[in-house]
């Protein structure tokens, strides 16, 4: 079973056309970038991928990206969700273009899926045909590399990663050991686009198998 997609909700979004120098310095924004685009959502991993997509669609750089502790179900305020991301750009138009790209991606291009009939186990298995500057830096690979972005609950993720690595000729570049801030786990794998897609499929199948029979060993 590979379940239905779970839509991502973008909870808040704002542009700061000309950010204060003190804020830019605190965020470590490179010289020449003065405009900021900020958004929060109820899904961190899709949003990290959305930030990477923004770097491919606009003249922006990711300067801040964090998951909120314990996940969206335990958010402390209505708009906090489980993620905040900030893009920096040389001007407001570029910042808006980057934000538009990130929001569109989060809402339309990728999602977690349910691994169980009760929707109580979810996973993210997304094949990125070519990385932007953000995920490339995270994984230490050149921009334009194919990537499998794989996330699931802790045990399911370990079983799924093992299946993905055995199924396809891919390399585990980043391991997100449990528990992450949102109590999940997973990794970033790279290889050819076909291999990354095969890794995503193997991961999804393994996660769903565990969800369907958690004590069957």
Helical stretch tally: 6
Radius of gyration: 17 Å
Oligomer: single chain
Strand content: 25-35%
Largest beta sheet: strand ordering: 1-6-7-8-10-9
The percent range for helix content is: 25-40%
- Poorly predicted regions are none
Please state the overall shape, judged from the principal axes of the Cα atoms: globular
Mean pLDDT, all residues: 96
State the secondary-structure class.
alpha+beta
Question: How would a crystallographer describe the biggest sheet?
Answer: 6 strands, antiparallel
N- to C-terminal separation? 19 Å
Sketch the topology as an H/E string, one letter per element: EEHEHEEHEEHEHEEH
Number of strands: 10
Description:
The protein has 217 residues and is an alpha+beta fold. It is 37% helix and 28% strand. The protein is built from 6 helices and 10 strands, in the order ββαβαββαββαβαββα. The longest helix is centred in the C-terminal third of the chain and has 20 residues, at 193-212.
